[in-house]
UniProtKB/TrEMBL annotation:
Name the record gives this protein: Putative membrane protein
Originating species: Tenacibaculum adriaticum
Ranges for domain DUF2061: 26-77
InterPro entries for this protein: DUF2061_membrane
Length: 84
């Protein structure tokens, strides 16, 4: 049912007044990454009991997750499944 709605209502980005602008997607990505890193820092602090160690883990996680996400997206760009 959802697939039928998507395929029947083909509209490009400029015609679709309800889709997000790219800047909103970027802001959401950054805010989600911040939330994820805060979660990692808190969990690390609870487990280790050391705030410096927790922030170190959070900082490393922040960078590695962004790098991994970039390559994950690039790989998905090469997969034809679900594209026209």
């Amino acid at each position: 049912m959802i697939v039928e709605q998507i395929t029947e209502n083909k509209v490009n980005y400029h015609e679709d007044k309800h889709s997000e602008k790219p800047i909103r997607s970027i802001a959401k990505s950054i805010s989600w990454r911040v939330v994820g890193t805060i979660d990692t820092v808190l969990i690390s602090w609870i487990i280790t009991g050391e705030i410096i160690t927790a922030f170190s883990i959070g900082a490393i996680e922040l960078v590695t997750k962004m790098v991994l996400y970039f390559f994950h997206e690039r790989m998905w760009n090469n997969i034809k499944w679900g594209k026209k």
